[in-house]
């Protein structure tokens, strides 16, 4: 429920916002336009600010921030005359290259990396190897063997997480390049967020299109291609973790040698 607007240029009404602050940002932007219209007249009675152009620019930016004018008007009934007027307003302020150059809101791509890595053949491989090492902890004959297996399992998990993070970083860079070619300002972030299997992926129309393009153009992790390794066995998480641990032990031993 909104309050009664005040004529003061710095005023922004308070109300219940079901859109986690986005609706408030719209109203705030419109009141900034109001302030811009009033302030010049306070300084110069003859000033004639272009309020129509300012309103068109604000509305076009809002459409850019939600992905399209259709997304902006998604809650309007079909055939709405008000919606038609908003479309005209947005069209009047849309650059030749489209709305994307006006965007200020981050482009957010959500992904379930474990599900995607399943298609690469990595999730099942990691799970099988990791569970085998965990079983070795339970069947170890000595505490030293159990500790070694725990260390190996921890390093395998670290490599697994690093593989996912590296792929997500490559995906974000690819998405950024696609959007930059379309005019997305460099100041607008492109975020790739791993929401995990329990959450629903959240893609607006723009994010869905860009995600699909970026996914197709992003190289799959090298670990998913054993044939690319000199010895395919080296691609396993167990082998990779053992190499890391061996290199770490060697570096530690070298640091302890007298100089």
Write the layout of secondary structure elements.
Layout (H helix, E strand, L loop, with lengths): L21 H22 L7 H16 L2 H4 L8 H13 L13 E5 L1 H8 L1 H18 L3 H39 L8 E5 L10 H13 L19 H20 L3
Parallel strand pairs: 1-2
Describe the protein's architecture and organization.
The chain is 59% helix and 4% strand. By secondary structure, the protein is mainly alpha-helical. It folds into two domains: 22-102, no CATH class; 107-256, no CATH class. α1 packs antiparallel against α2 and α7 (143-181) crosses α8. The model is unreliable at 1-15 (pLDDT under 50).
Q: Strand portion, in percent?
A: under 5%
Largest sheet, in brief, is: 2 strands, parallel
Structural class: mainly alpha
The total count of strands amounts to: 2
Morphology? elongated
Number of helices: 9
From the N-terminal CA to the C-terminal CA, the straight-line distance is 75 Å
Helix percent band: 55-70%
Strand arrangement across the biggest beta sheet: 1-2
Low-pLDDT residue intervals, each spanning 5 or more residues: 1-15
Name the average pLDDT: 80
Estimate nothing, just give the exact number of structural domains.
2
Order of helices and strands: HHHHEHHHEHH
Radius of gyration: 27 Å
